[in-house]
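Hi Q.,

Before the meeting this afternoon, I wanted you to have the flavin-adenine dinucleotide prediction in hand. No need to reply - just skim if you have a minute. The sequence and ligand are here:
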Amino acid sequence: MRYIIIGTGVAGYACVEAIRSIDKNCEIIMFGDDPHGYYSRPGLAYYLTGELPNKALFPKKREQFMQLNFKYQIGRVTKINRAEKKLLLDGKTQLSYDKLLIATGAYAAALKVTGANLKGVVKLDHLEDANQILSFAKRGRTAVVVGGGITALELTEGLLSRGVNVHYLLRGNRYWSNVLDEQESRIVEGRLQAEGVTLHFHSEPVEILGKSGKVNAVRLKDGSTIKCDILAYAIGIQPRMELAQDAGLNLERGILVNELLQTSDPDIYAAGDVAQVYDPITGHSVMDSLWTPAREQGYAAGLNMAGRQKAYIKSAPFNVTRLAGLTTTIIGAVGNGRDEDVLGIARGDSETWRQLPDAIVAQGGFDMNHVRVLVGEKTLIGAVVMGDQTLSAPLQTIIAEKLDISAIHDKLLSSDAKIADVIVDYWAKHLETA
Ligand SMILES: Cc1cc2nc3c(=O)[nH]c(=O)nc-3n(C[C@H](O)[C@H](O)[C@H](O)COP(=O)(O)OP(=O)(O)OC[C@H]3O[C@@H](n4cnc5c(N)ncnc54)[C@H](O)[C@@H]3O)c2cc1C
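Predicted structure with the ligand bound:
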């Protein structure tokens, strides 16, 4: 039996682990077109700021790879021939498969303005991108950052920490408007301004101007220009679906898979950022760009590929991240609508966060420490925790396990509610009885 995995990200790696946990003797081959193989993409933000050295990005040791006993080859899969169950590698080498996983991830959506090909225009997908940003930042004095979500802030923070002045352009009137509420957006914006970032609301670039092939200014839609040496963008991501599309698999916003992570071809599976995954509990088919779901999906796909029927049940998506230096956890459904700064989905983002059903908001705290919970009839539906993270783990469990909160429902919604105290109390009682 030969299993082939396309993609060396966390979904691909978890798939190898799962297959090997069942079948000790099968042949497993993994192809990847990133010369650095498997590393932490969320860690790239901390690599940019200098908080993580290069070697800390690589979570696995050589012996761990050896133990899994699989073949890893750098190269790009250029075609899937479903009729013959064969792949084409780098346009020349053919290889047959019995079961195939597509875990090709996503790339940054392109910034479509004149001048986007100039030297100094950067995005943050890969380690190579991060290295390029660091090299531009050595000589750069001013950067313009365009986009929304987590990655735009990671670019901003990374550049700031390297001594670059940053102008941050936002199309709308506040940051990440479809996930954060107004107060949360303002907290983040205030912190960015305090760090020295110049915010430009209702702004977007219409042309990147250059000299000798290098960026030297950006023209905005109001006709003004900002002089800069770096233009960094993070306007959303595009799942890498070219292979699946060419092979005629069913697609929507991602590669459509059932709860077994199987595509419309039963011998081909998909997982991670490229997959649009059916959740049998909600009946929704959604996209995430999150590390943990990618790992869980890759693992579930591997088990299914190796013959163990294991439905993937989506847990409430959560992300612990840093927004302008403030640790922030986002859990379950917390917002809705569309953010003008992001096309579709951003990195470290989940469509589920924006599926806000009927819920009432309760929030407390101020400035540095803030908690917002979305209160359903008997359960909590989502939460945002900024600053002090004491409530983050309890809220993850309360939301993911749909614990009955009827006993504190009215307390949470009372006008003088001390949300944090109510939840801490509830959690202590829950632990006593559990
Ligand atoms: C800067 C950044 C910050 C992030 N921050 C967070 C965060 O705070 N929290 C969070 O949960 N998630 C975050 N994410 C998202 C998270 O890293 C992804 O959800 C996760 O890495 C997806 O894993 P994957 O295996 O699906 O895809 P990837 O990690 O993208 O791996 C796919 C691999 O497939 C390879 N590939 C693609 N096509 C081919 C082909 N045809 N042939 C061969 N190889 C191919 C690619 O080169 C790539 O190596 C962040 C990502 C980035 C880039």
